[in-house]
């Protein structure tokens, strides 16, 4: 089986890390990097540190409007499909790179395989929600991280035989990286941080970064925390703060640092007293690492983490953020929500079954 895997943005490199070894054991993988993320700290660091194979294709689409960025992905991925003739095109999550690949693959012969299928925030103003819905509805193989995600797909009319519950590849990645991060990462020492004594934060959703009132409300609330707040700043967020002339002020009130590599991030998340984030992936990773999460959004596609008490939706509300920063952690056992850490091998099994369908018994 020949698989063309498409990545382009930070969370997709982590997901690719989880899957690539299982895939390459017995199959050919061609890796395409769209170039949606290109700064070393958002891209190269993941390939270097996690041993992700060098991409076979680099489209270099860079930053642009949604239309131009997605269009360049479509053109480049279509060309790669034509030259490689893969059996399937595998896409992760919900970025513009995902959508570009979905459109290119769905208009050509290989199967489109969507990892992290069936997630919904039900907020169509989020570009990611549009990307997910469109990708799911043209995919041939929909790989859901949970029963709930699979149920959502069924409710949307997607035939059962296309949907497979495999668990979450980011859980596989965390299991592979947690111990290694504890042993190898020096980030706590380097930053002078003690476990349990700081809050980790990330903010990058346009709804938060592009609305100055929301961004200010969030950062002011974090700056009022009774412990140090470490915030690895996404370039989108840094740009907005610099444009508004607020960077210097917040750099004095918060620990603003460059984005960190995955192992350092996992170590920080593992050791933090709390995490406050609008990231999708970080909400799940916090759950896997037993760190209570405040989600700086009004809704989430990872609803199970909220229902079991390990995630609180606090939006940009200063009072809810303040309460969440000091609330006790939930007690009692944690449910297993997103599989058992073997999503990668399950995905390969699904693809193998599909590429070698059972022969009909000639002598029934
Ligand atoms: C994208 C995804 C989002 C995902 C996030 C992961 C879409 C619509 N959004 O958001 O779902 O959660 O990646 O981090 O696909 N920039 C740089 N250097 C880079 C990349 C970007 O400086 O290497 C800056 C540019 O100014 C760019 C801005 O960040 O305009 C936003 O980048 P973009 O990839 O468009 O969206 P993200 O906010 O990163
Ligand atoms: N991450 C990282 N360094 C950082 C911030 C995040 O390695 O400074 C990792 C994090 O562990 C997770 C992924 O990047 O695996 C999440 O990416 P992001 O929040 O950008 O995107 P989302 O998940 O919201 O799409």
UniProtKB/TrEMBL annotation:
Organism: Halosimplex carlsbadense 2-9-1
Residue ranges of domain UDP-N-acetylglucosamine 2-epimerase in the record: 25-352
Gene3D superfamilies named among the record's database cross-references: Glycogen Phosphorylase B (3.40.50.2000)
Xref: InterPro entries: UDP_GlcNAc_Epimerase_2_dom, WecB-like
Coiled-coil stretches noted in the UniProt entry, renumbered to this chain: none
Protein name: UDP-N-acetylglucosamine 2-epimerase
One Pfam family per UniProt: Epimerase_2
Domain of life, per lineage: Archaea
